[in-house]
Design goal:
41% of the residues lie in helices and 12% in strands. The protein has a single domain, classed as Hypothetical protein PA1492 (Rossmann fold, 3-Layer(aba) Sandwich). By secondary structure, it is of the alpha/beta class. The chain has a 4-stranded parallel β-sheet with strand order 2-1-3-4, sandwiched between helices. The chain has 4 helices and 4 strands. The two termini are 21 Å apart. The chain is globular and about 40 Å long. 30% of the residues are buried. β1, α1 and β2 form a beta-alpha-beta unit. α3 runs parallel beside α4.
């Protein structure tokens, strides 16, 4: 018996961009927590979420340059079935690049507007 592959939803939003009221030190932690919240919502809808915020948390303190991490994230966008833009993404240079790539290569792009996350049964194909 062959199992149908699960659909992967890439969670895109700010990582280090500070939302109003946050200092740079606490902004990244806040953004990671927020992205995690959306990843859990996506899992509850049936997606396999990929949350780069969790994948790279703490790596901003290493000697590996930002460009390496954004290129890695763009590769994950290519391999995902769809992308979800979470609130605040417009203030993030990295999220804007992820959205532009997804659009360019024809991946479905969803924008969270408070009315939930579409399920993977929406016709997303790999």
């Amino acid at each position: 018996m062959t199992e149908t592959p699960r659909k992967i939803l890439y969670i895109s939003g700010p990582f280090s961009s500070a939302p109003a009221g946050y200092d740079p030190l606490h902004a990244t932690e806040h953004n990671i927590n927020e992205a995690s919240r959306y990843a859990l919502m996506a899992a509850r809808r049936g997606w396999v979420p990929f949350c780069p915020h969790k994948n790279t948390a703490g790596f901003q303190h290493t000697d590996i340059p930002y460009e390496f991490w954004i290129e890695a994230c763009l590769e994950f966008v290519r391999r995902s079935d769809a992308i979800l833009m979470i609130p605040g993404w417009e203030s993030s240079p990295g999220a804007k690049r992820e959205c532009a790539l997804a659009t360019l290569i024809g991946k479905p792009v969803y924008y969270f507007m408070g009315d939930g996350i579409p399920g993977p049964e929406t016709g997303v194909s790999n």
